[in-house]
Amino acid sequence: ELYEGFDEEYDCPILDEDRVVDELEDRMSEGGVIVDYHGCDFFPERWFHIVFVLRTENSFLYDRLESRGYTGKKLQDNIQCEIFQTLYEEAVLSYKKEIVHQLPSNTPEDLERNLDQIMQWIEQWMKDNN
Length: 130
Prior knowledge:
By secondary structure, this protein is an alpha+beta fold. It has 5 helices and 4 strands; from the N terminus they run ββαβαααβα.
């Protein structure tokens, strides 16, 4: 129940970002947490050691979003967001540039490579910080 309303135009709940941060603060301070979200500018910088931004070519993204039932403005805005690298730019502005990494997310093979890369990073980070 971390919402502050519903956006009729986008047909989705409106997240109460302050409540989300308050809810996660204790867990995040313990460490070892992975956060999966489509934006990052409201999360405190101190929470993250690395940020991965998944990137998708528009032809793949259009089909993917359309299959999820996205239409009209919601579909167009998501495509435009990818074209202008909005989430990547948001991440670079919110965190140190050296911890922000882009990963391709077009195919199931990309998914496997991304998982492998992220797991390797986690294993190395654990070795370096224990």
